[in-house]
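Re: weekly structure request thread

Next one in the queue (511 aa):
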Amino acid sequence: MSDAGQQSVIDFLSRPGTYGVPGPVERLETHTAHVFLAGDRAYKLKKAVHFPYMDFSTVEKRRSFCEEELRLNRRTAPELYLEVRAVRRLPDETLILGQEEGEALDWLVVMRRFDQSALFDAMAERGALTEPLMDGLANAVADLHETAEPAPDRGGAPAFRGYVEGNAVELERAIGTVFEAGRVERVNEGCRAALKQVAGVLDARRSAGHVRRCHGDLHLRNICLIDDRPTLFDCIEFNDDFALIDTLYDLSFLLMDLGYRGLHDHANRVLNRYLARTGYDGLAALPLMLACRAVIRAHVTARLVESLEGEKRERAAAEARAYLDLALSYLDPAPARLVAVGGLSGTGKSTLARGLAPALGAAPGAVVLRSDVIRKQLFGVAETETLPQEAYKPEVSRRVFAEIARLAAEVLAQGHAVIADAVYGEDWQRSGIAAVAGKAGVAFDGLWLEAPQRVLEERVDNRRGDASDATSAVVRAQAARIRPPAGWARVDAGGGRDAALVAARAALGMP
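Done, posted below.
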């Protein structure tokens, strides 16, 4: 059945009487589906289309893919995906919805309807995405990846070779109409060189079980806020080549989308929360993964140019070129470096570290290793759970700083920047973190934050929902014994986040 052959079903689904609810039926359309919004439900009809990457050409295939869509999306959005229902024709030619009798003309995925303003792309447009939402989003992605079905016969370097060469073909067909030949050549050669460099990393991740049945289409328009929770939906069900992928490659689509929109702070926040949950291996391959995602968006958008005219055509072409430029930036990352942020409790070390991280090193920025968080992880408790005094004994602190050093070395070895966030009140802690940079052969900078003691005491006593257990008594004890380290840049943190960030960036030579 062609899309034209589905017209009787489309007409039937466009009528309010079909659903027995008051009000008009709203209709949305994509290149693969019609979505009918009626009452508190959404009814998704797959178009009878056949592309090289997707085959919805028969009723049975559409039924099968509807059932698979329901099954896979219930992993992350069970409250949205309700059932699969048929549109049936009775002997008298009447069409009905969801009964057992009659011939099944087509199949629908029935979903709970939600406000389109709850889509994360719409929220991004109006500046409504917050740091807590990014933390929740990273946790949602990590939850999916940790439980997703492994696919050990997929992924690895062979899969990325296919991505790179397939992307090259698509980019080259748009030379002259959308892209310049020189920039296309730079992207293609850059991706090939990056793949050669990290092929072993990709194969090792496959062997370690990181290739799984992922979301596959993880951008902001496929994420919504349901019951105050970031919810992933509309995953890939129709092509295993798109869905059985490296988990970090799945995440990279989201990171790239945030970066394209200029939401670099959010991209860095998502990456850091995700890595803290899942581990830090694979970062060496992230520039290639991000570039591949940007290139895909570039050539997909370039294809749209062919069907557009006038101003719309010019906008689409400019968007495609912007994605290509983004890919080039990913393929030329800034060098790894290590920055230690120290100071008494309450000086705003973690706030400053988060502010510096997005612009430090390879995109989407530095990995932040915070001593307060790592201490809680060592004890297996939530970040905001208060630890007993025994957890702050010298021998425990040595374990914490050893773990920071170990993780920093692991991340730096993969070409990624690190910010180590701790008080760094002892000489052995300061020399230890500097030694990590020396062994890795990267630049080291120490930042020492300072503010009046009364300000620090007020800040820690007013802090809520934070990983730090410090109190004003802790600040007084620190002030009595800790002195600024020699050779570290001293930053006035008494005037607020913005002023401290400007001073810190200047000390690091950052623009």
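Residues 181-207 form the longest helix (27 residues). The chain has a mean pLDDT of 96.
Next request, please.
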